[in-house]
Amino acid sequence: MASIPKSGYGYPNHVARAFLLELENLMGKNGVSAMLNRSGLEPWIAAPPPEDTERGVDFAEFSALLAALDDLYGPRGGRGLARRAGWAVFPQILPLMPALRSVADLPGRALPAPEKLGLALQALAEAFTSASDQQAAVATEHDAFVFKVTRCPACWGRKVEDGPACAAIDGLLEECIHWLLGGEPIRIEETECIALGGTSCSFRIPRPAP
Ligand SMILES: [Zn+2]
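Above: inputs. Below: predicted complex with zinc ion.
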């Protein structure tokens, strides 16, 4: 696997740690060791990123981790694992990111679903933009919200040809929506990906019925 030059942009230690530990639940210790060896992150086998909010993980490291998953399990399998890890990581980061903590009572508020969803996505975009060097914003279309990441830790420095690469973010968004609105888990589509040549990694979320 080609190594990805350091970006100088940082991702929160606790988020990368939660992903890593969740991947260990899904793949076992040996699977995670193989992934870390392949991504040049051997030191994380003995010492994963600490559980703090420092931006200690370079985007290139997080992205290399996800690239190694694709390499080991194929794009379909690797991104399936990244997506499932994202589901489990969302509730763990919720109490640790101030912008998300401020909407912790949102699921119980008496607001129409589209309004709630707009507020939650905005909070998620702010949480990552303020707590990391990820840049995210939410655009509103008449039948959908679009969560746009213009500096993306999930595909930093990668070029792919086999479909959008940022399934870890799909998973976070899907679990955020499930937490917020309950009901059947929904599937989110990444409609544009920087690793595919796009200008942003964009995730289209259909507007729910009020
Ligand atoms: Zn991306």
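The helical segments are 13-38, 43-46, 59-93, 98-101, 113-131, 167-181.
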